[in-house]
Structure formats: C-alpha cells, structure tokens
C-alpha cells in the first residue's frame, strides 16, 4: 500500500491568510493543494514530501469569475468542469472549453481546477514511479538524483508539462495573476513557464496563482485544441496542439499562433509563421506548410512512455486537424 508522508495541514479562508502562511517558506516545505487530483498520487509516490500542506478549497475569492472590458477573469480554483460547461467560454473561447473538457475523467474535472492544471507538475517516465522504482535506478535530476535518464549528458530536466489548458491559454495571449505577501503581478501565460522540468514556472517561495485572464481581444478568434492520447479518456496527452488565428476584412490570414504541448518542460510556440501565413487564403496548402514547420521545430523525447518517432510523425497530423477545426468554425 502506498501511503502519504507525514505533514501538518491548514485550510485558510482568504488569499491574505494563504499568503501569510506561505511567506518565507521554501517550495519544498509547503505544498499548495487545490483539487488534489495530481498532488495526492505524487504524495503517495514520495515525489512531494512537504512538511505542511495548505488546502485552498476554502478561499472563496479564488472561485470567483467576472467579466469586464479586459476579458473574462477566472479564479484559480474555478473547476475544469465549470469551464467546459460555461456558455460564455463555449461562445467566446471555445478552445478553452474544449481543452478543459478533455482533461482526464468527469470525476477529476469536477475536482481539478484551472490553476491546478496550469501549475501541473511536469511528468516523466523516470519520475512518475514509486520510490522503490526510482531508487533502483539511482533517482534522477528532478528528484534526489544527479542524472537525466532521458538526455544522459543533460544538465537540465526535460520532464514534460502535460497541462491541457496551458497551450490554449498561451495561444490566446492569456494572462496569469500571481500574488505574494508584498504585491500582486500579472504576466503572460507564455512567460509563466521556463524550460526546466524541476520547477518549470516562475513561481517563487511565497507565490500563489490567483487568477487567469482570457483577454477580450481574443474573443471571436479562430481557435481549436487537439489532443493525442492512448484512450479517449483519463490519459495525459502524448501530444497536444492549440491554434488561434484571425482573418482580415478580405478573408486572408492576418495572424496565427500554434502551440504544441507535452514535449518538454514548457509548451512550445511554433516560430516564424508570419512569413508562411500572412496574407494567404486559409486552406490546405497553408495548413500543410504550417504543419511541416511544426514538424521541423518540435522534437519529442523519451520523457513519456510512447515512441518518440511516432509522436514526431503525429505533430503535423494534429496541427493540420487543429487548423481545419479552427478555420471551419464560423467567425
């Protein structure tokens, strides 16, 4: 039987109380828990061994949503099932609703939160195992060891970020609000992530994600999300693709963003697409050119237990599917 390590527990009821509790603590000593759908298995595997757990479920502010001229503000504890079923999100940001609807199972979506999915711990074949399995291999860079088993000469962890919502949020130019005891700051979701699988985001000790903003400027954009996984439910993505684009008054492509997830520690935005798509009529020739650009730039690793060459071959397939889906939708 897998048990959780010993820890103390608290359940504050305000953001200020949370920030007071975590001020001056280290990331390893305190674990913030929202729905707990990923945290609890990781505790059982001794991937997290905090001295204290701060449960956020009692913080009402983090469950609030509101809409203003800047866009739709989602508290970090808004459940994934709420997002998937929200009529405003389905109308204005359909790819966000789609991504949330594809996370795991209905039971997990009813517990899991958008903040938790954004802050999802990175995953790896050599990390998401029991303590005894990892000990037999000598551990790894991400936890207790000094060697990466994926890139044997690597000095940086390449565990994969497997969030469903993150690629879509990046494609839409969403922002995330981060609070600590001193102040609150807002940054682009794309800038939230860093390329190190040990700690793949900019959160420091004492930081708390409080809110995500879906920008008003992205309402009505052509958008879609595609996910490759072994089964039609439950599984983390082997590969994910989010696209967001817009057309000009003449029906030509004005802008296009393609983000590919589940490859490395942060989602990858496909570069240099303007030269391929700007001013072009949407259609198969352009989709093929974009798909091939993504294929060249995206290199799956053995950080998830599926053949990397096959995943690489699936990159252009899922990019094409996402583009067809996005631009088939009425404006």
Show the helix and strand layout:
Layout: E1 8-10, H1 15-22, E2 30-33, H2 39-44, E3 52-55, E4 65-68, E5 71-75, H3 80-85, H4 87-92, H5 94-101, H6 106-111, H7 114-118, H8 131-136, H9 165-171, E6 175-179, E7 184-188, H10 189-192, E8 208-215, E9 222-228, E10 239-247, E11 253-261, E12 268-269, H11 274-277, H12 284-297, H13 308-328
Parallel strand pairs: 1-3, 2-3
Antiparallel strand pairs: 4-5, 5-8, 6-7, 6-8, 9-10, 10-11, 11-12
Helix pairs in contact: 12-13
Quick structural gist:
The protein is built from 13 helices and 12 strands. The protein is an alpha+beta fold and 331 residues long.
What does this structure look like?
This protein has about 325 residues and is α+β, with helices and mostly antiparallel strands. About 30% of the residues lie in helices and about 20% in strands. The chain is built from 13 helices and 12 strands. The protein has helices at about 15-20, 40-45, 80-85, 85-90, 95-100, 105-110, 115-120, 130-135, 165-170, 190, 275, 285-295, 310-330, and strands at about 10, 30-35, 50-55, 65-70, 70-75, 175-180, 185-190, 210-215, 220-230, 240-245, 255-260, 270. The chain has a 5-stranded antiparallel β-sheet. Strands 9-10-11-12 form a 4-stranded antiparallel β-sheet, sandwiched between helices. Strands 1-3-2 form a 3-stranded parallel β-sheet, with helices on one face. Strand 11 (about 255-260) and strand 12 (about 270) form a beta hairpin. Helix 12 packs antiparallel against helix 13. The longest helix has 21 residues, at about 310-330. The radius of gyration is 20 Å and the shape is globular. The chain starts with 7 loop residues before the first strand and ends with a helix. The model has no long low-confidence stretch (mean pLDDT about 95).
């Amino acid at each position: 039987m897998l048990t959780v390590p010993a820890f103390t527990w608290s359940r504050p009821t305000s953001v200020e109380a949370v920030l007071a509790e975590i001020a001056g603590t280290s990331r390893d000593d305190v674990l913030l828990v929202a729905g707990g759908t990923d945290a609890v298995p990781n505790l059982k595997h001794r991937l997290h061994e905090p001295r204290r757990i701060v449960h956020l479920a009692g913080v009402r502010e983090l469950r609030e949503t509101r809409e203003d001229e800047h866009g739709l503000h989602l508290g970090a504890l808004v459940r994934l099932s709420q997002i998937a079923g929200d009529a405003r999100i389905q109308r204005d940001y359909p790819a966000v609703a789609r991504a949330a609807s594809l996370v795991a199972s209905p039971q997990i979506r009813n517990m899991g939160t958008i903040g938790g999915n954004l802050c999802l711990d990175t995953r790896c074949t050599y990390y998401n195992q029991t303590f005894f399995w990892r000990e037999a291999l000598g551990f790894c860079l991400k936890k207790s060891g000094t060697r990466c088993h994926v890139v044997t000469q690597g000095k940086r962890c390449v565990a994969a970020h497997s969030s469903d919502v993150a690629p879509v949020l990046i494609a839409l130019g969403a922002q995330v609000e981060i609070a600590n005891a001193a102040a609150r700051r807002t940054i682009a979701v794309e800038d939230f992530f860093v390329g190190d699988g040990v700690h793949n985001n900019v959160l420091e000790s004492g930081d708390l994600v409080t809110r995500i903003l879906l920008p008003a400027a992205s309402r009505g954009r052509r958008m879609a999300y595609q996910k490759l996984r072994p089964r039609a439910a439950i599984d983390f993505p082997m590969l994910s693709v989010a696209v967001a684009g817009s057309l000009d008054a003449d029906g030509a492509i004005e802008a296009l963003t393609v983000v590919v997830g589940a490859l490395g520690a942060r989602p990858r935005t496909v570069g240099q697409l303007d030269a391929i798509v700007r001013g072009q009529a949407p259609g198969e020739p352009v989709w093929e050119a974009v798909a091939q650009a993504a294929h060249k730039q995206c290199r799956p690793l053995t950080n998830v237990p599926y053949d990397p060459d096959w995943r690489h071959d699936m990159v252009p397939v899922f990019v094409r599917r996402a583009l067809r889906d996005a631009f088939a939708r009425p404006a």
